[in-house]
Design a protein that fits this description.
alpha/beta, Aspartate Aminotransferase, domain 1, 2 domains, seven-stranded mixed beta sheet, globular
């Protein structure tokens, strides 16, 4: 057995299951606010696309995906992130379809981490998506956790990091909009990180899978490619972004996303993936093309989440310290008390499942930045979200 497997932590939902094993839920109907799995219906117009392409399951898909899919993705990137004619960005060289961002975020570290380099650390926000950590540990990297607290709007304080510390970084994970906070990084901060990556030659992996679930139609969150283009970093060196149809289009079961950016990194990752055996089935590629080319269903999706934010926050005003985030479908209240006990109480008294914040974080120097928080995923129906909020108001 690979001995590095012993370094992996139990997944948050394994811990949650164990925590709640002896808790008797309240008699009310269960409401799940714990798992970040979209529950809105998938776009109906995609049903015909999958049916019309069923015969394509008879063919092996190519690892790079079809040129048609890469062009649809590239066109979306150019439009969404305001890429210019000066940018060296093409469907052929800068885009690679992947079978969901989870798979890609894990495997990209296995493909690109250099075990012989002097810089031997993979950095990530804390709290974080646990795939970042697992990927780093299985690649043989050291991990560095960058605490995300309310003092810095729940994003790492990058300006406090010294050049001596940056020299140890080989890979940096950023998550914008953040999981679990939903806060975003500005173009200025992303540009700063790009300059540091050039200075110290580390790779930036920008997990942007919540980028299309934003609140303000006039102000979509910035992305790493957008920041690179705005500063004239036209070859996107050291930059890779990761996007998915799971949250954007309510298609988590399709396992469809992409990575884009630095052409040399894309080429290396493609070589790895040729052996990895993760090519996307052709019918799924056809559905993905249609999804990336349509924005109407995405706008409607945002409206539905925004309705839930408004209803829940209004109902719990003055009861819970809730802040509506820039994007995502999460709430991340700081309850300033034991989040494990809160999670058990909400299940036993209201039959509502949430995720304790400390399960999403690591304790560094005696501090766990997730302690006292719970992650609320507003993925249930509007009616259930309102019902859950009313139950919480009653018990609190």
């Amino acid at each position: 057995m690979n001995p590095r497997l012993n370094a992996l932590h139990p997944y948050p939902f394994e811990k949650l299951k164990a925590l709640l094993a002896d808790v008797t839920p309240a008699q009310e109907s269960p409401i799940a606010w714990s798992v970040g799995e979209p529950k809105h219906a998938a776009p109906s117009f995609l049903q015909k696309v999958i049916v019309d392409n069923l015969s394509s399951y008879e063919n092996y898909p190519a690892t790079p995906g079809t040129l048609e899919l890469r062009e649809a993705i590239a066109t979306w990137c150019v439009r969404r992130f305001k890429l210019t004619a000066q940018d060296q960005f093409s469907a052929q060289n800068n885009v690679l379809p992947v079978t969901g961002t989870r798979e890609a975020l894990f495997s990209v570290v296995q493909a690109l981490f250099d075990t012989q380099a002097n810089a031997d650390e993979v950095w990530m926000p804390n709290p974080f998506y646990q795939i970042y950590e697992g990927a780093a540990l299985l690649a043989g990297a050291k991990t560095r956790y960058l605490d995300c607290t309310s003092v810095n709007d729940y994003q790492p304080d990058y300006l406090s990091i010294t050049d001596e510390q940056w020299q140890n970084c080989q890979m940096l994970f950023v998550c914008t909009p953040g999981n679990p906070s939903g806060t975003t990084l500005s173009i200025e901060t992303l540009s700063y990180l790009i300059r540091k990556s050039i200075q110290h030659n580390f790779i930036i992996f920008s997990d942007e899978c919540y980028s299309e679930l934003y609140r303000d139609e006039a102000n979509p969150p910035a992305g790493l490619l957008e920041a690179a283009s705005a500063m004239g970093h036209n070859d996107f060196k050291n930059c890779l972004v990761f996007h998915s149809l799971s949250k954007r289009s309510n298609l988590p079961g399709l396992r469809s996303g992409f990575t884009a950016g630095d052409a040399d990194l894309i080429a290396t990752f493609l070589r790895y993936r040729t052996y990895h055996g993760c090519a996307m089935p052709i019918p799924h590629q056809k559905v993905s093309i249609a999804a990336w080319q349509d924005e109407t269903h995405v706008i409607n999706n945002r409206k539905r989440y925004n309705e839930k934010y408004e209803a829940v926050v209004n109902e719990l005003s003055g009861v819970l310290p809730l802040t509506v985030p820039d994007a995502s479908f999460y709430l991340w209240p700081d309850l300033q008390r034991d989040d494990l006990q809160v999670t058990k109480d909400w299940l036993s008294k209201a039959n509502i499942r949430v995720l304790p914040g400390q399960y999403l974080s690591r304790t560094v120097d005696g501090i766990n930045p997730g302690y006292g928080h719970v992650r609320i995923a507003l993925v249930a129906s509007l009616n259930d979200c309102i019902l859950a909020a009313k139950r919480l108001r009653n018990i609190l």
